[in-house]
Amino acid sequence: MAATLEAQVIAAFGHHVLVRAAGGVIREARPRGRQLDIVCGDRVLCEHDTRHDETHVVEVLPRRGTLYRTDSRGRTEPVVANISLLVAVVAPEPPPDLFVIDRYLAAAASSAISAVVLLNKADLAGRTELRNALEPYAQAGYPLLECRRDRPGSVAGLAAALRGQTGVLVGQSGVGKSSLVSTLLPGVQIATNSLTRDREGRHTTTASRLYDLPGGGALIDSPGVRDFAPAIDALEPRSLGFVEIDRLALGCRFLDCRHLREPGCAVIAATESGVLDARRYESYRRLRRLFEDLAAARPR
After folding, report:
1. What pLDDT sits at residue 2?
2. 87: confidence class by pLDDT, cuts 50, 70, 90
3. Is the full-model pTM beyond 0.85?
4. Residue 127 is inside which H or E element, if any?
5. 91-115 as b/e, with b when 16 or more CB fall inside 10 Å?
């Protein structure tokens, strides 16, 4: 006998997921068939085999607010689903790679997901320089938040931003995303089956996990990354999700301007005049080249 139930995926690791059904019952489940691509945040239909006490995911329900990435062969794959807010986390340590943050923000903007930039570990040396480096995000319209390890109350701004949202924390490994979850949700234990140890013996997240927030809404803690390539199918083709370039592109001479070397390009003019941050523009150029390389590498 099999009972059908609707559930939410609250963790995904390998070919196993944790699903939560009505009443808060949590079960471990596996997809039925290799064609199902299931990620944290998905709403799914499951069949529970009462005789063998096994649960299988049989269908992924329609998604909204999905963050996508591209693999090395140019194929699109989801990262997390049904989110409304992306929190891009940076810190003075490890050395920040803002080009990775740019790509997360581009993916979010292209999927109509709101985003904020969070400076974590703002008690460390190097915070002033990093604050200055983050200023172009504020100029582009992204809210900037700060959290300090020596002041647990500093997460109040993040908590307020997440209220009523389904958010996801993204960023490099070691920026303190899981510590933020622990501060927001005191007493919550991160599941050990979604953790591994790095070379220094510290626990690091290797699977996305969803947590309910006391003020309403939910938060997904995602694995740290070294790099991130947005899915080329999901990127807005004109600006690639760079919100300030999207605004400036209205002034370009050509509707199909790639903002690289075309005459009459308003984006290039804004960069040369200092209106558009030069590093952000270089980040756009790098993503444009990656976009075209991945498109060329895709199976035909």
Report:
1. 66
2. very high
3. yes
4. helix 127-140
5. bbeeebbbebbbbbbbbbbbbebbb
Cα–Cα–Cα angle for 67, 73, 78, nearest 5°? 15
- Is the dihedral angle over the CA atoms 110, 105, 161, 196 positive or is it negative? positive
Give dist(CA 63, CA 77) in Å, integer: 13
Which SS3 state, helix, strand or coil, does residue 69 take?
Answer: strand
Distance CA 56, CA 64 (A): 23
227-239 as b/e, with b when 16 or more CB fall inside 10 Å?
Answer: ebbbbbebbbebb
Strand partners, 297: none
173-224 residue pLDDT tens? 999 999 999 999 987 765 433 433 333 333 344 589 999 998 889 999 988 8
What number of other Cβ atoms are within 10 A of residue 23's Cβ?
6
